[in-house]
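Technical annex, item 7. During the second reporting period the consortium partners agreed on a shared format for inverse folding records so that results from different sites could be compared directly. Each record opens with the tokenized structure and is followed by the designed sequence. A conforming record, contributed by the partner at site C, is shown below for reference.
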């Protein structure tokens, strides 16, 4: 009689384990997230087993903070300024980073280019692919230029073989493309299942800490845009990066959603070219490329990503309602915020926005939800409503409250300096930001405290 395989139920959202299926996860309270998977083996050879059952157990002892070395963590550069910025200054030795993104967005390309740069600096790198053959990798590698012999490639999906090779090679960086293709013989489940992903990540994480090897894991994403597998996977790694952007557009945005060694507010912008990904060192110029002149409904505003100011073009189109119910459509920002701002304009400025369709777009395809965009959106709507173009050399930023007041925004000095660097000569900003602001040479500061004052500058 065949031996019955024991199974557990895992929550795909938080990783909670249950011996039976339940409709709602008792840990994270999400519905219909329990997935059945075989019970992982717990043999003596498993990295999760503390010992084989015989002999003494090696344990670490707790130490006070005064005995901990205060030296900063060891980092090495990827050769990409934008990637180093998102990582917090470079790759930390012994860290594990998860990179997710849509198919064809450029995850393998950016990691291959980073591995090439690191190998060219004299460090050993191993690129392990479970999806492509060596011939396919070489065809892709021809686009990015010559590759040093310090960068070695391996096509393997057996996790036991991978760990043995990495212990023998001891590279500074190991790239796993992708974690969903790895499997361990100790788990009776197919590759890509929740049990296999948990086991593979745990084994590689322990290897990273023991051998001081830095890891980059490529992760597939679901239709919701999250990394496939249990959400606990993101809790196990040190950093989680997402590669975003329209696959039919040339630019790509690298965003950090978790980083134990740096900020999660920084982004990196890349451009896809024939020879791979290229860094965009001046994203404001890149995002404003092709901006129309003397066109109503177009205004430039400034958003902050970490410590980096980004100049964006806000476009608005207001037309008389064709049917009984006005349409509200937004691309690149929160539609609920747009509805709120239109309601404030109708109440405080007397503009019957309920009789007009409103379409808002952040040009360039980038997505931002910072409140500092409020004033720029209102200005663009007013410009389109009155069919009056705004000065091409004017920039607008500020948060709008429900009473129609214009509230202060953080880091106003950096926003004004970025606008001056890009050739803008006038800036409409909250009056409360004016006290701690120094105007750059050639820049006129136009403070406002309410939407009523904003109308005068139109």
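Designed sequence (site C submission):
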């Amino acid at each position: 009689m065949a031996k019955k395989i024991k199974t557990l139920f895992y929550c795909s959202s938080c990783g909670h384990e249950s011996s039976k299926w339940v409709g709602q996860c008792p840990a994270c309270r999400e519905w219909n997230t329990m997935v059945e998977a075989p019970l992982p083996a717990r043999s003596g050879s498993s990295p999760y087993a503390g010992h084989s059952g015989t002999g003494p157990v090696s344990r670490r002892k707790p130490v006070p903070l005064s005995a901990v070395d205060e030296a900063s963590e060891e980092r090495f550069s990827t050769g990409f300024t934008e990637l180093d910025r998102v990582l917090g200054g470079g790759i930390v030795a012994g860290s594990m980073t998860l990179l997710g993104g849509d198919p064809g967005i450029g995850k393998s390309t950016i990691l291959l280019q980073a591995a090439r740069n690191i190998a060219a600096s004299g460090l050993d790198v191993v690129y392990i692919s479970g999806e492509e053959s060596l011939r396919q990798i070489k065809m892709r590698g021809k686009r990015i230029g010559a590759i040093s012999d310090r960068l070695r490639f391996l096509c393997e999906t057996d996790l036991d073989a991978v760990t043995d090779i990495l212990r023998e090679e001891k590279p500074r960086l190991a790239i796993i493309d992708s974690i969903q293709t790895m499997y361990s013989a100790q788990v009776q489940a197919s590759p890509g299942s929740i049990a296999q992903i948990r086991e593979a990540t745990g084994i590689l994480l322990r290897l990273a800490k023991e051998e001081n090897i830095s890891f980059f894991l490529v992760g597939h994403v679901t239709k919701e845009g999250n990394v496939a597998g249990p959400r606990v996977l993101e809790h196990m790694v040190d950093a989680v990066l997402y590669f975003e952007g329209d696959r039919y557009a040339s630019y790509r945005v690298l965003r950090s959603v978790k980083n134990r060694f740096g900020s999660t507010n920084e982004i990196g912008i890349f451009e896809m070219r024939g020879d791979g990904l290229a860094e965009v060192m001046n994203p404001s110029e890149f995002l404003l490329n092709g901006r129309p002149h003397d066109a109503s409904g177009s205004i430039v505003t400034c958003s902050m990503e970490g410590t980096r100011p980004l100049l964006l073009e806000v476009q608005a189109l207001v037309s008389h309602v064709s049917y009984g119910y006005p349409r509200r459509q937004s691309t690149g920002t929160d539609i609920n915020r747009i509805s709120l701002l239109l309601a404030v304009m109708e109440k405080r400025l007397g503009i019957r926005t309920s009789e007009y369709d409103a379409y808002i777009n952040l040009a360039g395809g980038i997505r931002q939800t910072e409140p500092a965009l409020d004033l720029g959106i209102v200005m663009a709507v007013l410009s389109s409503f009155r069919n009056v173009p705004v000065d091409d050399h004017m920039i607008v930023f500020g948060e709008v409250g429900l009473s129609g007041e214009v509230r202060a925004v953080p880091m106003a000095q950096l926003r004004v300096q970025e606008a001056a660097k890009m050739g803008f000569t006038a800036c409409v900003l909250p009056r409360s930001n004016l006290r701690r602001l120094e105007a750059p040479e050639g820049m006129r500061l136009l403070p406002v405290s309410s939407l009523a004052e904003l109308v005068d500058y139109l």
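The CA atoms of residues 12 and 267 lie 27 Å apart. Residues 194-211 form the longest helix (18 residues). All partners now use this format for quarterly exchanges.
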